[in-house]
Amino acid sequence: MKKIVETTDFLALDHINVSIEQSTGVIGLIGPNGAGKTTLLNTFIGQIGLFEGTVVAETAHIAYCPDTPEFDPYLSAFEIMQQSLRLAGKDVNAAKITQTLEQVGLFEHRYRIAGNFSRGMKQRLGIAAALVLEPQLLLLDEPTSALDPFGRADILKIITEVSRKLTVIISSHILSDIQKIATSLIVLNKGQLIYEGPASDFMTVNDHMATLALRDIEAGEATLNYLSHKGAEVQWDGQNQQVVFPDDQLSKILQLMIPMATQIRYLGRHEMTLERSFEDAVLQREGKE
């Protein structure tokens, strides 16, 4: 699918081609705030028009839960589930509603009005209102962003369980959450697609990097210039205030840094996490532009 969304100022999505083919499991849609994650999800369900390109999707088999689901505060959870089915033109099935509320841990609160729900309970109810439609593809936009660690863990457990029967695309900038549950990734940065494929491959691609962190952060730029002048292939990671470089240059960097050994806080290979892999991918891409 190719999607371009344009405003008068910028391209929200810049020539993106994505294909969703897997039948079950979790796909992590990641990127920093403003990368285009929500825009991409909204193009899937037809909420945003395209300036150029096409979306080919069976929208009848897609369900969506926004990052902050809102409900009529005077309707009960059970009534909201009924409403979701009616709005989708589906028959109201009490047994299906009960089963779905049990799945997200809200069965005991089925007759409680939504106005008295906590943020985490509303998030569960939003997922339930989507799940009751029996979609083949479930889109979740930042479902854990406003929750405490316990609430996040509960939502991630629900997502993992439901993904055994359908495909879930979860958008998030909390990469540690995505790393726990996603088997595939769609990676965006500044409206551009920088990776699509298995999560394990994305982390493997970027596991060849190493880091030099200094005790005196202000010396970072001078150190970068010094190493570059000596022929080392180095880049400055401004977010983490450290020098990054291919790990096959570890010996060379170590030799060059001997005169400044007392300034070294850390020198070694990256501990590969999804967050680290994403940072490396962005740095490498920006270095080529």
UniProtKB/TrEMBL annotation:
Keyword rRNA-binding attached: no
Residue span(s) of domain ABC transporter: 2-215
GO MF annotations, alphabetized: ATP binding; ATP hydrolysis activity
Superkingdom of source: Bacteria
Keywords noted in UniProt: ATP-binding, Nucleotide-binding, Transport
Database matches in PANTHER family: ABC TRANSPORTER, ATP-BINDING PROTEIN (PTHR43335:SF2)
Protein family (similarity comment): Belongs to the ABC transporter superfamily.
Name of this protein: ABC transporter, ATP-binding protein
Source species of the chain: Lactiplantibacillus pentosus IG1
